[in-house]
User: Fold this.
Amino acid sequence: MELILIQAAGLSAAGALLGSAIAATALGMSGDPLPSLQFFLAVGSLEVFVSALAALIPAVVASRRDPLKELRVP
Assistant:
């Protein structure tokens, strides 16, 4: 279960960093004012938290399945 949550949080953190960089670049190029660093950190951490929370149910379901039955090739 922890592996799925760590993977979801890691991918979400990478997406938050990339999205923040693209947003800051787009705002800088268009001449619009940039939000503060605290805003970027708050939005990114909220995104990572919500992503990990959304991955919790699939992680619990996957952790309760029998790996031998799931990995068996028909």
Summary: Residues 2-71 form one domain. The CA atoms of residues 25 and 31 lie 10 Å apart. The mean pLDDT is 92.
